[in-house]
Amino acid sequence: MAPIQVALRGCCPRCGKGRVFGGVIAFAPRCPACGLDLTSFNVGDGAASFLILIVGAIVTVLALWVELRFEPAWWVHVLLWLPLTIALSLVLMRFAKGLLLGLEYRHEAREGRL
Ligand SMILES: [Zn+2]
Question: Which of 13, 15, 28, 61 is deepest in the core (most CB within 10 A)?
Fold first, then answer.
């Protein structure tokens, strides 16, 4: 499977049938279809650091625009941006982790072994 397909569909990079996510953003230990060991992949915190910047920029620009355009009460900002921040973070984190897993599988990247 292409890494972008793994990212978009959350499917196994080897067989394309099983799901790699056991939770919302947590990997399952193994692919339920082909048994690929998913614990051997380490996507690390690389996705999170980029997503902090991306989600932060999107939410900040939208919040500034809404404030300057509509001047709503403070609680409107809380109701808008808190759920959006959480939803964007989860959706993009799942996408980024799937993409990194697909790339690691395609390029056979592993931690160093003796
Ligand atoms: Zn599989």
Answer: 13
Tokens representing residue 67 in the block = 């404030």
Q: How far apart are CA 75 and CA 1, in angstroms?
A: 45
CB distance 39 to 84 below 8 Å: no
Cα Rg of the chain (Å, integer): 18
CA of 58 to the centre of ligand 1 (A): 34
- Ligand 1 mean position, distance from CA 13 (Å): 7
Distance between Cα 55 and ligand 1 center (Å): 31
Mean pLDDT, 10 residues at a time, over the chain (114 residues)?
Answer: 92 94 93 93 84 95 98 97 96 93 90 71
- If you measure from the C-alpha of residue 38 to the centroid of ligand 1, how many angstroms do you get, rounded to a whole number? 9
Q: Which residue has the tokens 């397909």?
A: 5
